[in-house]
Specification:
With 400 residues, the protein is of the alpha/beta class. The chain has 15 helices and 13 strands. The chain has 2 domains: 201 residues, CDP-glycerol glycerophosphotransferase, N-terminal domain (Rossmann fold); 182 residues, Rossmann fold (3-Layer(aba) Sandwich), CATH 3.40.50.12580. Helix content is 40%, strand content 15%. Strand 9, helix 9 and strand 10 form a beta-alpha-beta unit. The N and C termini lie far apart (52 Å).
């Protein structure tokens, strides 16, 4: 019987995974270092960012006797002193992971990855409460290879960090995970809660903006492609009309707005650009900023689509709007959304005219009340102490 293209791809990936796993088994001859912790973000494609960054910073604040390793594809990325960055090659990955007491990650481990007895894998994930579906929630659009990678990773996880009952209830279908979870909150959100004034000041100074400049951040999620499918950059090219957006912002919230663009890390990691050609200085492309929190924390307004970033912004009571110009197509490609958009506090629109109308009628106090209702429904915990609680767990693990 002739195999389908997908089945041939799966067989190729499995053969490759088994072959590459030999490096991990070879490295088991080396002892586990009880003071080594290895961090990775988005399979090494991004640098010092997301939840692992703020966990590492808390570890550095507490002690200097640990070997904190960061696997990264691009060795030009900058890290805090005390972080040992390592090129994310197969041999390096196998050695560093195989000899570490603790792994900290915010995405899936590759198929070749093998965990040894006695090692501790802490999964922080890169989103929390989500709009777009993941895992089995995607239905027929969840590919076979995606399921295999997800199951392989979830079998190795020792502890999954969450910020809400909502995430915990969705872990079985979304993450294919049935293990231990702990509700600490998201380490990256600590900075948004505790250090926002400093983040706002530093961003404006870096880009030469006046202190009273209002920032509208546009941050679309990644479109098109699962494991084994083509990732089409053209599908990322439908940008909002920034002139209309700026005019609507000024009409509703007052003048002196700039728009900051932040593309999804998977696009910037692939050096995909949307060809932003603004020369007026009212649009800033901050896609290459390493840490999303250092951009979001500077913002006064967020425009996104299906990104979990909407909830991070909402924790700061930022007005969040959803520009879902491809709603029907996105659901067809990705699967049914995790939320009915009508049930979220975030006004959404499928075209610019509708978006501007919704902005004009936006009422902040009603929005804040709707957010509080959402946090109660989801049983949210974001108190700015997540990094400390997570590091407490890591330190107890190292003692053990």
């Amino acid at each position: 019987m002739k195999l389908s293209k997908e089945d041939r791809y799966i067989r190729r990936r499995l053969r490759q995974g088994r072959k590459q796993a030999r490096e991990f088994y070879y490295c088991r001859k080396y002892p586990i270092d009880p003071k080594k912790i290895v961090f990775t973000t988005i399979e090494g494609t991004t640098g010092f960012s997301c939840n692992p960054k703020y966990i590492a910073l808390e570890l550095l604040r507490r002690r200097q006797d640990l070997d904190l390793v960061w696997l990264v594809d691009d060795m030009s990325k900058e890290f805090s002193a005390g972080i040992r960055k390592v090129k994310n090659t197969l041999k390096n990955r196998a050695y560093e992971l195989s000899t570490a007491a603790v792994w900290v990650d915010n995405s899936r481990k590759q198929l070749e990855c093998r965990k040894r007895p006695g090692q501790f894998y802490l999964q922080t994930w890169h989103a929390s409460i989500a709009i777009k579906p993941i895992g089995l929630e995607r239905g027929a659009s969840f590919s076979k290879i995606a399921r295999m990678v997800t199951e392989h990773d979830s079998r190795m996880i020792d502890l999954f960090v969450t910020n809400s009952a909502w995430v915990e209830e969705h872990a079985a279908l979304g993450m294919l995970y049935h293990g231990e979870m702990i509700r600490t909150g998201s380490a990256r959100v600590d900075a948004l809660i505790n250090d926002r004034d400093n983040i706002r000041r530093k961003f404006r100074e870096k880009y030469g903006l006046a202190k009273d400049t209002k920032i509208a951040m546009y941050a679309p999620t990644f479109r098109s492609g699962s494991q084994g499918t083509e990732r089409d950059p053209a599908m990322q090219n439908k940008m909002p009309d920034f002139r209309m957006l700026k005019e609507a912002l000024e009409k509703r919230f007052g003048v002196n707005w700039v728009i900051v663009l932040r593309l999804h890390p998977q696009l910037t990691a692939r050096h995909i650009s949307l060809g932003l050609t603004d020369k007026t200085g009212t649009i800033i492309d901050a896609s290459r900023e390493e840490d999303m929190c250092e951009t979001l924390g500077a913002a006064d307004f967020l425009l996104t689509d299906y990104s979990a970033l909407a909830f991070d912004a909402a924790f700061m009571n930022l007005p969040v709007f959803l520009y879902v110009y491809d709603l029907k197509e996105y659901i067809k490609e990705r699967g049914q959304l995790s939320w009915n958009l009508e049930g979220l506090p975030f006004p959404y629109a499928e075209n610019m005219d509708e978006l501007c109308r919704r902005m004009n009628s936006f009422e902040l106090e009603g929005y804040k009340k709707a957010l509080q209702k959402l946090w109660k429904i989801t049983e949210l915990k974001e108190d700015g102490q997540a990094s400390k609680q997570i590091v407490d767990i890591i330190e107890e693990t190292l003692k053990g």
